[in-house]
Amino acid sequence: xxxxxxxxxxxxILTDDKSxxxxxxxxxxxxxxxxxxxxxxxxxxxxxxxxTVFLQRKVSQIIYGEDIANIEAKNGxxxxxxxxxxxxxxxxxxxxxxxxxxxxPDDYAYAFSEVPYEKGFNFLYYLExxxxxxxxxxxxxEYINAFKFQSIDYLNFxxxxxxxxxxxxxxxxxxxxxxxxxxxxxxILSPGLPVVKNAFRKLK
Length: 204
Hints:
This protein is mainly alpha-helical. The protein is about 55% helix and about 5% strand.
C-alpha cells in the first residue's frame, strides 16, 4: 500500500536474490506518479500506472543496465498482448481512455490488466524516443512540479509536453515536427495495439 512519502511493503518482497526490486521500485515510484500527481478519474489510470512503470524501469536501468530494463519492457509488452487477445482488439478496455458506460469503474477488469501499465509505458517510451532521454527527463520533472497536489487528465499532460518541446527545441521546425508526429488520438483513444511498436533498444 502506498501513500505520499510512505509505502507499506510485505516482507515477502525483500528477497535475498533481489529479484523483486522492480516491484519495490514500482510502489515507491507511486509517491510521485499516482499520489503526488493524481489521475482525475479511473479513465486516466494510465497516468498513474504507465508513468510508474516508466520510472520503475529507469530504476532497473540504473541498477542493472539498459539491456535488462529493455528485457523487462519486452516481457511487459508480451503480457500486455495476452490481455489484448483476451479482450479483443476492439474492446474499449484496450484503450488508454476506456469508456465504462454503465459499468462500475471500481469493479472492472481494466485496472487489473496490463493495459494501463504497459500501453501507458509504451506511449511514454515512444515520446522519449522522439525527444531523447535527457530532454524527456526534463519534461518528467516539469510534469511533476507543474501538477503536484493536483488531479489531472491526459490533456493536461499533452499540453505540458507540447509546451516543453517548444522550450527545449528552439528550432521551431524541429519542435513542430515532433509535436505533429505524435498521434494522441490513436495512442490514447483507440483500442487495440499501440500505433507504434517500440524496438526497445539503447537510447541516446
